[in-house]
Structure formats: C-alpha cells, structure tokens
Amino acid sequence: MKEFAIGIDVGGTTTKFGIVNRNGEILVQDRIPTNEHEVVEEFIDDLYEKLKPMIDNVGGNDNIYGIGMGAPNGNFYSGTIEYAPNLKWKGIIPIADLMYKKFGLHTKLTNDANAAAMGEYMFGCTKGVKHFITITLGTGVGSGIVIDGKILLGHDGFAGELGHTIIRPGGRLHKGTGSHGCLEAYASATGVRETAIELLTNYPEQESLLRNYTINELTSETVYDCAMQGDNIANEIFEFTGEILGESLANFVMFSSPEAIVLFGGLTKSGNLLLNPTRKAMEANLLPIFQNKVKLLFSELKEADAAILGASSLVWE
Amino acid sequence: MKEFAIGIDVGGTTTKFGIVNRNGEILVQDRIPTNEHEVVEEFIDDLYEKLKPMIDNVGGNDNIYGIGMGAPNGNFYSGTIEYAPNLKWKGIIPIADLMYKKFGLHTKLTNDANAAAMGEYMFGCTKGVKHFITITLGTGVGSGIVIDGKILLGHDGFAGELGHTIIRPGGRLHKGTGSHGCLEAYASATGVRETAIELLTNYPEQESLLRNYTINELTSETVYDCAMQGDNIANEIFEFTGEILGESLANFVMFSSPEAIVLFGGLTKSGNLLLNPTRKAMEANLLPIFQNKVKLLFSELKEADAAILGASSLVWE
C-alpha cells in the first residue's frame, strides 16, 4: 500500500507543500513564493525542483498515492483554477493536468477553503463529524461546507463562497468585487481595519489607544492589543464584527443545520473578544429548533499545517 | 412489485392525500381538515377512514409500498413532528410510528417544503437535476434544498429553513418568531400585504388604486390586480419584494451553487412582476463565477398535486 500523499496549498503570496502520511503527520515541508512566476509552468517547475528530492527520500513515486492541491478558485470537477483574482495566471489554468504531466502523479484540486475543511474532517477538531462548516477569517473570509462527510461542491464545483454572502444590504463596499455589505467586508482582518478607521473617524472626540497608531499600523492585531488593554473603541470593533459574523452564521445554520462551525485564520487569535459577541448574535438570530445546538469551535490545527494536511486529504478520500 | 404509494401533505389548515403510482400519477385524492382534532390519534383515525377504501380499491396493503408524509417541522430522521407552531398537537408527535400502527404500512416523514422539493426532483421541472433549491412563496416562505440528488437534512433533520434567514438585519418584525428582517417577513403573501400597508401609510399623498380596498381586502392578490392596472405603488411593492428575494437567492446560490431555483406557491401567480426584479437583484449580488448560470423557474406542478406527489416520493427513494 502506498503510504504517502503530497499536500500543496497555493496561496496568493506563498505556496506551502509537504509529504503527509495517513495519520496526518507531515514528514517534511517547504514553501515557495506563488506570484513570482509569470506562467504557471515555471511555477510547477519550481515546485518539482523542491519536491523531487522529498519524493525520492520516501521511496519515489511508487510510494506516493497522489497529489492534493488547494488553490483560490480551484475547481474539483475540472481540476482547473478559474479566474483567480489573487493569482498572476489569468483565465482557466488546467493545473491538475499540468501537475500530472510534470510529476507523473494523479492530482486532485479543490479551493483552498474546501481543503482546510477536509483537513478538519480527517485530522482536526471535527474529525468524523458529518455536518459542519469551516470559516477562515484571514485577509478575506473563506468557507468550506461539509455535508454528510463530503465537501459541498454544488453543480459546478463553486459552492461555499460564504464570505461573499450579503449580510448588510447596501452596506460597506467590497473593493475586490464591487458588492455592498458582504460578510468579508466586515469579518476579515481587512474588515476589522476598516471598522477601526470608520469608528475613529466617526467619533473624533472619543479617546482611544488606537489613535497612537499611524493609519498603516492599524491592523486587526493592533485592535486586539488595544482591546486587551481595555480600550473602548477597540472593544466596540470586536462587538460589531462579532455581531455581523454571528448573524451570518445563524443564516448558514438555518441553511444546512451543521453540528459545528469551525473558525480558522488570523482573526481567531482574538479569541473570546470575537467569539463571545459572535455566539450571542448567532443564537439571537436562530429559530428555537436550532438554538444551543451548534458547537462554535476554533480550529486546533496549526494554520500552515492545516492547509497542507487539508490538501493532502483530497488524495485519501 | 408493489405499484402504489400513499402521499399525505399535512398543512396548517387542510391535509391532502392520495394514492400515487411510480409515474407520478395521482389515481385518487381527498382532503380532511387538519386542526379539528385535539389529539393526533383522532386525526389519524379520520385519515384511515378516508384512505382505507382507496387502499382496498387498488388491491389492499399488499399493493402499497408505503406512506410518505410532509408536515410542518416534520423530521425525517426521527419520524416525529416537533413543536410545529401551526398545529394543535404540541410537543413531539411520533406520527410515523402512529401511522404505522394504524395502517400497517411503513411511513416516512419529512417537512412539507422538503416534500415539495422531492416532488420537483421526481416529477417536476427539475426532474433529475442533482442540485437545486425550491422556495415556496405562500403565507410563509418554505424551502427544500437538494444536494447531489438528495434532500439536505443536516445533522438533526432541520436543514433548509431559508425563510428565516436574515436579509434585513434589524428590519421588519416577524410576528411568529420575534426575529427582525427575515426573508419570510417580506417575500410571502403576508409580507407583501405588510409592504402594501407600509407604503400606503408612509406616502399618504400618493394616489393608488390600493386605497380603494379596506385593510382586510389588501392581499397579495389585490396588489397584483392593481399592479397589472399600472398602479405605481402596487408595482413598487413587487419591485421591493423582488429585490429582497433576489438578494436572498444570491446568498443561497453562493452557499450551495445550485443549477436551478424553483419558485412555488401563491405569490408566484404574480409571474414576471415578481420574477424580473428578483432575477435582477439576484444577478447583481452574485460573484461573477455564479452569474447567468442559475435557472430561476416557476414550478409546473399543480400546487395541491405537488404536495401529495412530493410526499409520496419519499417512499420511492
């Protein structure tokens, strides 16, 4: 029996990859920059150069079950990356085929957020849970939806874009898409920064530790630091963010009735500051039949590991 | 091979039932009032009295594959009706067991909106379509979600309460649940009536044919009649309703990426008056990868038939 899989997480900035066994242990890992390559073939050449010695060390292709890849706008059905706004390679990129040609290993692709959800299902805090949703609260808001133990793909492979669902119709502009009031415009690191700027601008009289930072220094981390020091505006920012996130989560629960929601990504470092108002708003907007049932969890996987594990888990499916 | 199934649709007012063959033809049907019975056993006795001669006419229980029931808050997993706000029988009603004891036929239960979705899948305009959503726009807003050819039930059987998702946070009160700004508060017959009253009250100067009706006569039908005569306020009511419905549909599409959405129920009689603004708002709020892909359809099944067919289809699954 082949013992290993390759997991590759293609991010907007960095691509992380590693060799993983069936227990979810990463034997070896490394990373390369994603967007230094004008054409995807050069990117794949670079990947191959780094991975080939790793593969040889575990017994060559004969011992590798396949390659799993997570990538922005990655389509499981077609194995293509389609119109990913954060990547240099434009249009439709048949990356699974290109990988197979270079590596001689079958390659399965899905979007990065779906890969993270599979990582949780195979190795994380919802191991074996048949119905759950993962929400990645990073620079943006990603999501992976697991129904009956399988990633929800929809008819075309693009299901699960929960960060783009509208929760404040006519609300804050999302600069990337032009939509108004989507979840990602608020409950992301970028959204928290925007909320900070809005509140500091709208209440010019109110004292705040956040005023000690230049506009470039205002990040979700500085907001967290100030909130922990008892700063009122900083705390209000998390209350506001949690309220919007919680309302959205309530909507998601009334769609698919998951057993758990797993939160993931940089913003979760704010812990209960974010979790408490989120849970409160979620419960307040749920029908009674859903109340006090849904576990709201933080992922226990290390972020870098989860991406690789998640991608690799596509292979074991 | 047993040739027939019994389909029963338990509504808040009326229960419809019939005997159906595998081609989705209803051989015979009838109805009884739902809420005249203080205890569910009496209701089942009444059902039995009506159904027994029908069953005998097609060859008795030996020729019946089973009973499929759709009911408010019907739970597929447990076969129980749980805390249905519109029914007299309170608490948890083990109706599938009680039916089996009375009829000697296996009984499968699901909620009424899920039954309608199964009817569309087996016999309707999305026959064989693996990913779609049905939205019932009646007195309330119901929904059934089909993923990979199966009703989405969630971990506890209660998935698919899309009428209760929040689309206008802090918006209109839903009198039944106490929530603010849910889809059902706007995109139902009740919601259209409320919008009419709001607009007529907020713009007391503006002339409208709707002012010729007493407040009790203001219904979604009178709004439709006036809109068809070119009344501005009546048309604005449909624009407003369609905008909110379309925004919600966009959110649902970005969740499960269905191939089609099937609209159903009394409000769909308004045709393009509702459909056009709905489609416009849906497309405007979708990410480009979802745009111009989702079919927005009206159900072609007769409403009374669809409920019975849908319920019966649980048996053939």
Please provide a written account of the structure.
The structure is a homodimer of 317-residue chains. In chain A, strand 2 and strand 3 form a beta hairpin. In chain A, the strands form three sheets. Chain A has a five-stranded mixed β-sheet. A five-stranded mixed β-sheet of chain A has the order 11-10-9-12-13, covered by helices on one side. The first copy, chain A, has two domains: 4-122 and 304-316, Nucleotidyltransferase, domain 5 (2-Layer Sandwich), CATH 3.30.420; 129-299, 2-Layer Sandwich (Nucleotidyltransferase, domain 5), CATH 3.30.420. In chain A, 53% of the residues are buried. By secondary structure, chain A is of the alpha/beta class. Chain A is globular. In chain A, helix 3 (112-123) crosses helix 8 and helix 5 packs across helix 6. Chain A has eight helices and 13 strands. The first copy, chain A, has helices at 40-57, 95-103, 112-123, 189-202, 220-228, 232-256, 272-284, 303-316, and strands at 4-10, 14-21, 26-33, 64-71, 74-75, 80-82, 92-93, 107-111, 132-137, 141-147, 150-151, 260-264, 295-298. Chains A and B meet through helix 6 of A and helix 6 of B.
Share of helical residues of chain A: 25-40%
Structural class by secondary-structure content of chain A: alpha/beta
Overall geometry of chain A: globular
* Low-pLDDT windows of residues of chain A: none
Q: For the residues shown, what is the average pLDDT of chain A?
A: 94
The CATH architecture of the largest domain in chain A can be named as 2-Layer Sandwich
Note the run of SSEs of chain A as H and E.
EEEHEEEEHEHEEEHHHEHEH
Helix run count of chain A: 8
The level-1 CATH class of the largest domain in chain A: Alpha Beta
Strand tally of chain A:
13
Order of strands across the main sheet of chain A: 3-2-1-4-8
Give the number of domains of chain A.
Answer: 2
At the third CATH level, what is the topology name of the largest domain in chain A?
Nucleotidyltransferase, domain 5
Strand content of chain A is: 15-25%
Beginning-to-end CA distance, first to last residue of chain A: 15 Å
Query: So, the CATH homologous superfamily of the largest domain in chain A?
Result: ATPase, nucleotide binding domain
Rg from Cα of chain A: 20 Å
Largest sheet of chain A: 5 strands, mixed
Largest interface: A-B, 44 and 43 residues
